[in-house]
Amino acid sequence: MMRHALTLVLFAGALAACESPTPEPKAEAPKPAATTAATTTKTVTKTATEAPKAKGPFPESTNAALQDPKKAEETAPATFKVKFETTAGDFEIECTRSWAPNGADRIYNLAKIGFFDDVAFFRAVKTPRPFMVQFGIHGNPEVSKHWRSANLKPDEVKGSNTRGMVTFAMAGSPDTRSTQLFINFADNSNLDKMGFAPVCKVVDPGMEVVDKIHSGYGERPSGAQGTIQMQGNKFLREKFPELDYIKTARLSDGKGSAAPSASAAASAAPSASAAASAAPSAAPAAPGVKAASPGPAATSTR
User: Fold this and answer.
1) Would you call 257 helix, strand, or coil by DSSP?
2) What span, in angstroms and rounded, lies between the C-alpha atoms of 296 and 155?
3) Which of 13, 20, 179, 232 has the most crowded CB, counting CB atoms within 10 A?
4) Under DSSP, is residue 288 helix (H, G, I), strand (E, B) or coil?
5) What class of enzyme is it (predicted)?
6) Taking the CA atoms of the chain, what radius of gyration do you get in angstroms?
7) Distances (CA, A) of 101 to 43, 127, 132, 147, 274
């Protein structure tokens, strides 16, 4: 009897040993680290707030006349064109010497020696309404210092400062013109009787490019013209990194054309309506800006 009982116990134990073991709980998938989202947000925020990178620098001309304005006094042809390659795109201007002989000679020589290479459009005013974009302070102070007092004799105003016309800036009077120019964004014929003599005109469809020149800084860089003269592009690229620049400006055919084109001759004189609407003012100022604010002015050298 005892033998049978022992046999049953052993048999029951063997059955128990053959049962499938209880499965172990599955390991949970690792949870993402709590810092992942925060890290991503931090990275995105940092990227979004990074300062814009300044354009350039671009190669400067090494022409010897950059250090001596007396070496750049050739007489310009009757008409000539200058092609500007800029960070906003390319455009061309056509200059007519009969409009303003002294100014035309200066632009011709500046283009021929590469003066405008790596030069900033440091002032672009579009608010409260489109006004003008200004350039012409050399980016290298060692060049700029030779041209600050290289002033031109006055030119009689024969054209009108309408949209697309290119004119010299000046420091209060027509005999203070040197190297700074501005392009009219709109009809600024009120400047005509102040002595601002247009010299060239942007060739169609070039104003589509000129309109794209960065204008977000408005008048601010112009208020530091003295610093720009002393520190050059180093200052502009640090303080106003979004400015657009002239990469190169060259005479389109090397010499210019022998005679004015029909389109240039047709627009040489201001229209009667423009002349009638021009009114004298104490100082040229951007439309909608207080009279104390500078207009298309170059740094005074007197």
Assistant:
1) strand
2) 16
3) 179
4) coil
5) isomerase
6) 35
7) 58, 32, 22, 19, 22
- Give the contacts of 16 (CB within 8 A, at least 6 positions apart): none
Cβ–Cβ < 8 Å for 104, 97 = yes
Q: Which helix (H) or strand (E) holds 135?
A: strand 132-135
- Cα separation, 241 vs 55, whole angstroms: 7
Report the 10 Å Cβ neighbour count for 101: 18
At 255 the three-state DSSP class reads coil
- For residue 113, give the DSSP letter: H
State the amino acid at position 292 in one-letter form.
A
Chain centroid to CA 170: how far?
Answer: 20
Structural domains in the chain, sorted by start: 64-259 (2.40.100.10)
pLDDT at position 217 over 80: yes
CA nearest neighbour of 264 among 222, 215, 204, 197 = 204
Tokens, residue 107? 């632009």
Q: Which helix (H) or strand (E) holds 111?
A: helix 101-113
Q: For residue range 130-149, what is the model confidence (pLDDT) as tens digits?
A: 999 999 999 999 999 999 99
- CA–CA gap between residue 231 and residue 140 (Å, rounded): 8
Element (H, E) at 3: helix 2-18
pLDDT in tens, 8-35: 443 444 434 444 444 444 555 555 454 4
CB 264, CB 79: distance < 8 Å: yes
Answer positive or negative: Cα dihedral of 86, 80, 131, 297.
positive
The secondary structure of 40-105 as a DSSP string is HHHHHHHHHTPPPPPP---PPP--GGGG-GGG--PPPPSEEEEEEEETTEEEEEEEETTT-HHHHH
